[in-house]
Automatic annotation (TrEMBL):
Record keywords, A-Z: Membrane, Transmembrane, Transmembrane helix
Protein name according to UniProt: Sulfate transporter
Domain SLC26A/SulP transporter: 19-386
TM helices/strands, residue ranges: 23-43, 90-112, 124-148, 168-191, 203-225, 245-272, 331-360, 380-408
Region (Disordered): 483-511
Topology in the lipid bilayer: Multi-pass membrane protein
Lineage of source species: Bacteria, Bacillati, Actinomycetota, Actinomycetes, Kitasatosporales
Originating species: Streptomyces asoensis
Keyword field contains Methyltransferase: no
Location within or outside the cell: Membrane
InterPro entries membership: SLC26A/SulP_dom, SLC26A/SulP_fam
Pfam hit, one: Sulfate_transp
Amino acid sequence: MSAATDRRPDGRIARFPHLRQDFAASLVVFLVALPLCVGVAVASGVPAELGLVTGIVGGIVTGMLRGSSLQVSGPAAGLTVLVFEAVREFGLPALGVIVLATGTLQLAMGALKLGRYFRAISVSVVEGMLAGIGLVLIASQLYAMAAAEAPESGLAKMAGLPGALTDAVGSTAAQASLAIGAGTVAVLVLWPRMPAKVRTVPGPLAAVGLATLAAVLLDAPVATVEVRGLLDSVQPPPLSAFGGLAGIGLLGTIVAFTLIASAESLFSAAAVDRLHDGPRTRYDQELMAQGVGNALCGVLGALPMTAVIVRSAANVQAGARTKASRVMHGVWLLLFAALLPDLLAYIPVPALAGVLVHAGAKLVPVRGLVLLWREHRGEALILVVTAVSIVTVSMFEGVLIGLALAVVKTAWEASHLRMEIVDKGAGPVQAHLSGNATFLRLPKILDSLESLPQDRPVELDLSGLHHLDHACRTALETWAERHSAAGTEPVKVTEPVRAAPPEKVTESATG
C-alpha cells in the first residue's frame, strides 16, 4: 500500500493517513523558516520578500518533486556571502540570470546522473567551505549588529571588526543596535536549555519576536526591514542581463553557485537520511528537484535555494512523515507574504543579523576540528586551508584550493612505497620495492638507488609493487642503464607480478 493511503478501522481507505503529523510539522518548519528567509535576504543585500519567494518555491515546487522525502529547501545562510558579492559586482538583475543558469546546470547534472558523484567530494573540503562561509558571515553580520558598513573583502572584514565595535560604543543608535543583536544571539544560545513547553516555539522565531517586541516597546533607534511588497520585489531578469553570460566573471560565479548549492544540498540529504527511517534520498532526482526550484527562482529574480539542514532537522523532529509537510510550509509562507507583509517592517535588522551570526557559528566545526586534528591531521589541514582561503581570497578560489589539496593528499597517500636495501657485504646488492611506485615517490626511489655502490652488481626486485607508473618505469630503466655502464654486471630486474585474467565462465542454456 502506498505511503499516501492506509485502511481505516471501518475498512475504508484513508488517502492521507499522516496528515495530522505533517500538518503539525509544517507549522514548525514555517516558524523556523520565516525569520531565516527574511534574514538571509537582508544579509544578501536584496529585498526581504525575495527570501520568502525562494522559501515558497522551495516548499511548494521543490517539495512536491521526488528525491528526498523530508528534506526542506529554501534560501541558505551558506550562500549569503556569495549572493552578496554577486549582487554587488553584477547588480540585482543579474542575480536572476545566475540562479536560472545554476538551476539549468543542476538539471543537466541530474539527468546525466552526476548527483551521486558529489558524495565523492572530500568531507573536509565541504566542512572547510562551510567554515569559511561561516567566518565571513559572522564578520559581516557583526557590522550589521553594530550599525556599521562592512568592508568588501573577507580579510578586511576581519581586520576592521575591532575598530567597528569600538566606534559603536560612542554612538547611542549603534549601542541600541548592538544590544538588540547581542540579545538575539543570547536567546538563541539559551533557548535549548529552556523547558520543553517553552521550546515548542522555534528558537529563531522566539529570538526575533522578542527582539522586535523590545525594539517597539523601547522605541529603539534601530534600522528595520524595508518592505516593498511581494509583487514589487519579484523582478524577472531583463534580456539585457543575459549578455553578462559572455563574461568570464559571471560564468565563474555560476559555477561556484552550482557546485556549492549542489554539494550543500546533497550533503544535507545524507545527514537528513540519518535522522529518519523513511525512504532514502535518490541523489540524481534530488539534484534535478533542486534544479527545477533554482530555475524557477531565477525566472522570478529571487535568491538561490539549497536544501537546508536546520529546517530539515526541524521537519523530522516535529514528526513529519511525508513530503506534504514541506509543501504545506511553503503554503504558509505564501499566505504570510500575501496577507501579512507589513509585519516585516517591525523586525529590527540587528535581530536578523544576530540570527545569522548564530547560524554562521554553527558552520564552524570547532569541536570537530579538534577531534579531526587528533585522528587525521591531513584532513584537518585541508579543512583549515579551505576556510582560510575563502576568507582571504574568495569563495570560488578557496573551494578550488581545498579540492586541489584533497586530490594531492589522496594521491600522496595512494603512492605509499616501501624500499628495502639488503647488502650482505659480498655478492649483489638487493633492492626490494613494494607498494605503489608513482612519480610522487620518484625522488625518494632515485636517491636510494643512486646511493648504492657503483662497483657492485644490483638486483632490483619489483615483484612487490601493486602499481608502477610510466614515469617510474622510465626512470628506473634509465638508472639501470647508467649503473650497468660503469663496468659492473647489468642490473637484474624482477618485474611486478601481473594478475592473471579471470577465467571465462560459460553459462548453460538453462542458466
